[in-house]
Amino acid sequence: MSSKIYVGNLPYTVTDSILESNFAEYGGVSSAKIMMDRDTGRSKGFGFVEMVSEEVAQAAISGLNGRSVDGRSIVVNMARPREEGRSSGGYRDKGYTSSTRKDVGYGNGGFGGGRY
């Protein structure tokens, strides 16, 4: 079973291949991915590494957490699963919505609509 690791506070110059080679020192790496900004194409400063086993992942976390990379102390720990329901709008099973707030929108009082 593979284990996913979160790597944060990375310098913006770190690439997928650099990240993979740093973690490969501790064992087999299934994948390494730096998260990129969709608009600018620049690194967001964090990424995820998937290791081949839990033991290899723990060894990498112990060895790399707090290490200085280009003057930045990186954060390395087990990745948490994505949380559901943190949407600020968009498509849902009931259609498109803009907000779940009840006090915003039309028809909630006074002339001209809701409170802003």
From TrEMBL:
<feature type="region of interest" description="Disordered">
    <location>
        <begin position="77"/>
        <end position="116"/>
    </location>
</feature>
<dbReference type="InterPro" id="IPR052462">
    <property type="entry name" value="SLIRP/GR-RBP-like"/>
</dbReference>
<keyword id="KW-0694">RNA-binding</keyword>
<dbReference type="InterPro" id="IPR035979">
    <property type="entry name" value="RBD_domain_sf"/>
</dbReference>
<protein>
    <submittedName>
        <fullName>RNA-binding protein</fullName>
    </submittedName>
</protein>
<feature type="compositionally biased region" description="Basic and acidic residues">
    <location>
        <begin position="80"/>
        <end position="104"/>
    </location>
</feature>
<feature type="domain" description="RRM">
    <location>
        <begin position="3"/>
        <end position="81"/>
    </location>
</feature>
<dbReference type="InterPro" id="IPR048289">
    <property type="entry name" value="RRM2_NsCP33-like"/>
</dbReference>
<dbReference type="Pfam" id="PF00076">
    <property type="entry name" value="RRM_1"/>
</dbReference>
<feature type="compositionally biased region" description="Gly residues">
    <location>
        <begin position="106"/>
        <end position="116"/>
    </location>
</feature>
<dbReference type="InterPro" id="IPR012677">
    <property type="entry name" value="Nucleotide-bd_a/b_plait_sf"/>
</dbReference>
<dbReference type="InterPro" id="IPR000504">
    <property type="entry name" value="RRM_dom"/>
</dbReference>
<dbReference type="GO" id="GO:0003723">
    <property type="term" value="F:RNA binding"/>
</dbReference>
